[in-house]
């Protein structure tokens, strides 16, 4: 079993080797983490108000996600699971697109087809996950192999949870990546719970990092509530991948503070004491204490940043409330590169009824056959 | 023009497109130096090197999952599933991922890839080397499903599939791999992925078929001709998307239809052909549509020649619809 790697302890004191980050980037990490938390809070509120359908929050996971993804370069890809949307925002996903996706409205680049919390951003190489657990893992490996044979200098960071470590995709992805020495980094975010099944019940292995051994992939267990340790782990795994030495597995140990989603009541399956113990290890408070110690923050910093972030988020939400209706043709578009005749016919038949009932908008016209 | 078997035409198609497009790569179980269990990928590793034609670990889920990632990042993967019977571990990746990627991403991400797989009975392969699973995949929007029946079409459809912007399941009738031979043009050519092929024209009964059932239907048609029944034989060859206009036209031509496939009948591909005809051209029909198919059972071994439609059963169906 590997020891848990840390750079700062739960009180914010330095206990490991600090990554080379200037003051601006250090403060930036705090802002990115806080943005994740503020966006989640606002989305939950909108969900309770019936404005968005579903929220899978990242509360408690901010350091794991932001720290590790901050070590990626612009050309790298991030293959996501449910909770990495905040990392996408940090890497370039415009907040407006994030909110449009939560509203599943006509501004959503995925045309409102996915349920909430399935973000994508082509510009920063962030494909959306499907909802099926673990399927993105071999995709990331294949894309990494493609990068390698095409001589592209890029690393594929593949994120998934403790539950996904039981999936086919984890096994085949890790196995193929090891054999191919693919330039990828597996990021197992062990947040304690796969909906209601604890991560201790997901495997008999003492540590998730032990799983790397069978695939010939070096693995380490990192304190995922330590943003700097998460950063440093990705940084070294990334360098290893770029050097042609193959994949790594990073296990980020952290805790999902809220339910699996806005539809979940975690009090049914876990104790208040367990949650309280992790609350005391809050990743943002820990990093704020570290920054305060270094003179980069003061007692009011978090509050000031939160006020700015909520103003930024609320402006975007306001704008997205006014999105135009979804074009009906999107029902049959993007199934294939061109809309085939049978789908044109199905749509035209539907449109005839939709027009009678006033559901059709200008521009929803029939396809030529 | 070379006179090739169907499997040689597949091999020629792969080599031709690999020479033309360096982003095309071929991989799967035993496809490398061995050249595949049916030799469909023979000599590709020798000509194109281990980076473009290679063996993978034994995991269908891994083969298709990684193919999707490769397709998303600039390659044109052609993945082989050794027998279609072994494709089901990859069903999730095909149905949930490859087929839905373009739609769910609003066209931002796509998976231009081909899955080649030998299917069908007639080789004494028993339950797990004989199945025809096309119906599972034809129920999957976003996927194209192609089945050739001649060497010419095998090469031309395969090249079209590899060049297509969407994922294509390319099912090869293994019973025909070495039992049919035909003229195959040299170099690059394509056969359109949206049109059926009229194998022979006839005015009395229309038979729809594909893959290994095409020669069976042709034998039955020859026997029917001896009785003065003119059979119009249609090779569907692209099952999804289907050439619906072509099917309806061929059905109207005779008003008497037989559909033949070796897969089980219930919810089989013949059901769709039958429903399409019933919905659109029932007023032209002179007889109920008759299906000749495998049984709704697992695929047998010893009795496979009775399970699979043969010329006698197809001829019987032709006679029934003709005399209705």
Task: Provide the fold topology.
The complex is a heterodimer of chains A (369) and B (324).
Chain A: E1 4-5, H1 23-48, H2 62-70, E2 77-79, H3 85-91, H4 95-103, H5 136-149, E3 156-161, H6 168-180, E4 184-190, E5 193-194, E6 197-198, H7 211-214, E7 219-223, H8 227-242, E8 248-253, H9 272-279, H10 283-293, H11 301-321, H12 341-356
Parallel strand pairs in A: 1-7, 2-3, 3-4, 4-8, 7-8
Antiparallel strand pairs in A: 5-6
Chain B: E1 2-5, H1 6-20, E2 24-28, H2 44-48, E3 53-55, H3 60-72, E4 76-80, H4 91-98, H5 101-104, E5 114-119, H6 134-138, E6 144-146, H7 151-163, E7 168-173, E8 181-184, E9 197-200, E10 205-209, H8 213-226, E11 231-235, E12 238-240, H9 244-254, E13 257-264, H10 269-281, E14 290-294, H11 304-307, H12 311-323
Helix pairs in contact in B: 1-7, 3-4, 8-12, 9-10
Task: Please describe the structure with a list of short key phrases separated by commas or semicolons.
heterodimer, A: 369 residues, alpha/beta, Rossmann fold, six-stranded parallel β-sheet, two-stranded antiparallel sheet, 12 helices, 8 strands, globular, B: 324 residues, 2 domains, seven-stranded mixed β-sheet, five-stranded mixed β-sheet, 14 strands
Distance between the termini of chain B: 45 Å
The major pleated sheet of chain B works out as: 7 strands, mixed
Strand content of chain A: 5-15%
Overall CATH class of the largest domain in chain A: Alpha Beta
Q: Provide the CATH superfamily of the largest domain in chain A.
A: Thiamin diphosphate (ThDP)-binding fold, Pyr/PP domains
Count of distinct strands of chain A: 8
Q: Count every helix of chain B, treating DSSP H or I runs of 4 or more residues as helices.
A: 12
- SS class of chain A: alpha/beta
The percent range for helix content of chain A is 40-55%
CATH superfamily descriptor of the largest domain in chain B: Thiamin diphosphate (ThDP)-binding fold, Pyr/PP domains
Describe this entry's structure for a reader.
- The complex is a heterodimer of chains A (369) and B (324).
- Chain A is α/β, with parallel strands linked by helices.
- Helix content of chain A is 42%, strand content 9%.
- Chain A has helices at 23-48, 62-70, 85-91, 95-103, 136-149, 168-180, 211-214, 227-242, 272-279, 283-293, 301-321, 341-356, and strands at residues 4-5, 77-79, 156-161, 184-190, 193-194, 197-198, 219-223, 248-253.
- Chain A is globular.
- Chain A starts with a strand and ends in a 13-residue tail after the last helix.
- The model of chain A has no long low-confidence stretch (mean pLDDT 96).
- The N and C termini of chain B lie far apart (45 Å).
- Chain B contains twelve helices and 14 strands.
- Chain B has 324 residues and is an alpha/beta fold.
- Helix content of chain B is 36%, strand content 20%.
- Chain B has helices spanning 6-20, 44-48, 60-72, 91-98, 101-104, 134-138, 151-163, 213-226, 244-254, 269-281, 304-307, 311-323, and strands at 2-5, 24-28, 53-55, 76-80, 114-119, 144-146, 168-173, 181-184, 197-200, 205-209, 231-235, 238-240, 257-264, 290-294.
- Chain B folds into two domains: 2-184, Rossmann fold; 197-323, Rossmann fold (3-Layer(aba) Sandwich), CATH 3.40.50.
- The interface between A and B is large, with 48 and 45 residues.
